């Protein structure tokens, strides 16, 4: 990695300034965390695998017209990505009852949900990423009603793609999380 200015250092990735304006270099770490960073381990090669899996999924999404930040893989651990303004939300799509959903609602783990459910969490580690409603999101200006509609439509499209992709190799997609951002010309 050339000596580039570090923009952000997260639990699983580090972002550096990119070679052109509006781009960043995303470096995948070998770190594995759980419980909002309370548990931390190093898994040799995890960053390399995450980079390749990410490249595959984002390339497929882009080819389907589903917008992502991915431009191209640079090497075994790095990608060139578009710089975006992050919307401070974690968007969770659930297909099967698991994890916190079973605890909150008393559901039996593994229960197929009657339809996919979209949940929103405010991205703030200090607050443990609390669940928020659409009302919170628009009232606090984290996203506009139109952006929220676009995010939900995007989440369902990604869910449809990922469900089919994983089903093709015998894996049931229980749930996943995406984060969204604003891209400015």
What does this entry look like structurally?
With 185 residues, the chain is of the alpha+beta class. It folds into two domains: 6-83, Phosphorylase Kinase, domain 1; 86-182, 2-Layer Sandwich (D-amino Acid Aminotransferase, Chain A, domain 1), CATH 3.30.470.20. 29% of the residues lie in helices and 33% in strands. The strands form four sheets. Strands 1-2-3-7-6 form a five-stranded antiparallel sheet, covered by helices on one side. The radius of gyration is 17 Å and the shape is globular. It starts with 5 loop residues before the first strand and ends with a strand.
Q: What labels describe this entry?
A:
185 residues; Phosphorylase Kinase, domain 1; D-amino Acid Aminotransferase, Chain A, domain 1; five-stranded antiparallel beta sheet
What is the topology?
Layout: E1 6-9, E2 13-17, E3 23-28, E4 31-34, E5 39-42, H1 46-63, E6 70-73, E7 78-82, E8 85-86, E9 89-96, H2 99-105, E10 112-122, E11 131-132, H3 134-139, H4 145-167, E12 175-178, E13 181-182
Antiparallel strand pairs: 1-2, 2-3, 3-7, 4-5, 6-7, 8-13, 9-10, 9-12, 10-11
Rg calc: 17 Å
State the low-pLDDT regions, or none: none
- In CATH terms, the superfamily of the largest domain is ATP-grasp fold, B domain
**Count of alpha/pi helices:** 4
Topology-level CATH name of the largest domain: D-amino Acid Aminotransferase, Chain A, domain 1
Number of strands: 13
Distance between the first and last residues' Cα: 27 Å
CATH architectural type of the largest domain: 2-Layer Sandwich
Residue share in β-strands: 25-35%
Main sheet properties: 5 strands, antiparallel
The CATH first-level class of the largest domain comes to Alpha Beta
Instruction: Write down the overall mean pLDDT.
Output: 95
Counted up, domains total 2
H and E order: EEEEEHEEEEHEEHHEE
Q: In terms of quaternary structure, what is this?
A: single chain
Read across the widest sheet, the strand sequence of neighbours is 1-2-3-7-6
- Helical amount: 25-40%
